[in-house]
Amino acid sequence: MITIEYFNNHYFYKKDLQRLCRKYGLPANGTKAELNNYILKMLHGVLPKDIKPLRKLNKQKSLQFSEISLDTKLFNSGFKLNNEARKYFANYFHVANFHFKKSMAIKMRQVQTNHDNRATVKDLILILNKPSKVLSNSEEDTYQWNHFLQDFYKDPSYRKFNMPIKVAAILWKIIRDSNLPKKYNHNLIIDYYSLIKQYKKRC
Questions:
Q1: Can you give the residue ranges of the SAP domain (predicted)?
Q2: What torsion, rounded to 10 degrees, do the Cα atoms 178, 182, 186, 192 define?
Q3: pLDDT tens across 155-184, in order?
Q4: Among 167, 148, 169, which Cα is nearest to 159's?
Q5: Comparing C-alpha atoms, which of 34, 63, 67, 68 is closest to residue 51?
Q6: For residue 31, which of 106, 131, 120 has the smallest C-alpha distance?
Q7: How far apart are the first and last CA of the chain?
Q8: Strand partners for 73
Q9: Is the CB of residue 144 less than 8 Å from the CB of residue 180?
Q10: Alpha carbons 135 and 27: distance in angstroms, whole number
């Protein structure tokens, strides 16, 4: 059995979390944040059999383009972020192609988790202008590699390397497998070569 300390101090990819969930008999479907939640509940003493999925799979028949309106409920209506919904939004915004935003997917998961019977398609459109309202949640915290890479490229020092993406990947691997915070900081790039030596010694 893994410990809370080990789990909190290490980075896990989604497939690793799913493997752990299956190993301990926990729900294995959902976002990384949801899988993290199941594992942490177990590590804090909740029996696996008592840990239920935060969201149920939506098995309802999908709404067609012609059945969707601004007042369509997001929960238990058959509305899904699929090609029919994409056609609706493309028509609404008068564009040839419409691409779903991350904020829309997060909003849909929140609706399903909270069994929100009030949220409608209009709410999805409103959050496109204010995505921060739904992005500040536990799910966003699981995108650690993406944030690490973004912060790495904000540091002008990356330009001294011929293959900066490789440097970023190596630094991330070192941080990922350590007890250090899973965030980029300028000292990492300054200590790049010494960190590699230390990491090789540990391995």
A1: 9-43
A2: 30
A3: 999 888 888 888 888 898 888 878 788 889
A4: 167
A5: 34
A6: 106
A7: 23
A8: 120
A9: no
A10: 24
Those residues with Cβ within 8 angstroms of residue 84's Cβ, 6 or more apart along the chain or in another chain: 62, 63, 64, 65, 68
Nearest to 88 by CA among 98, 103, 101: 98
Q: Where are the alpha helices (DSSP H) in the chain?
A: 4-9, 14-23, 32-43, 83-93, 102-114, 121-127, 132-135, 144-154, 164-176, 186-190, 192-202
Residues 195, 160 contacting (CB under 8 angstroms): no
Of 134, 133, 77, 126, the residue nearest 105 (C-alpha): 134
- From the number of C-beta atoms within 10 Å of its C-beta (0-12, 13-18, 19+), residue 200 rates as exposed
In this prediction the pTM is 0.52
Tokens of 163: 């293959």
Tokens 């890479």 sit at which residue?
Answer: 149
- What's the helix, strand, coil split of the chain in %, to 5? 60, 0, 40
For the chain, give me the number of helices (H) and strands (E)? 11, 0
- pLDDT, tens digit, for every residue of 63-90? 999 999 999 999 989 999 999 999 999 9
pLDDT, tens digit, 9 for 90 and up, residues 120-151? 999 999 888 775 555 545 566 667 887 888 89
Bridge-partner residues for 120, per DSSP?
Answer: 73
DSSP bridge partners of 197:
none
Which two tokens mark 184? 């980029």
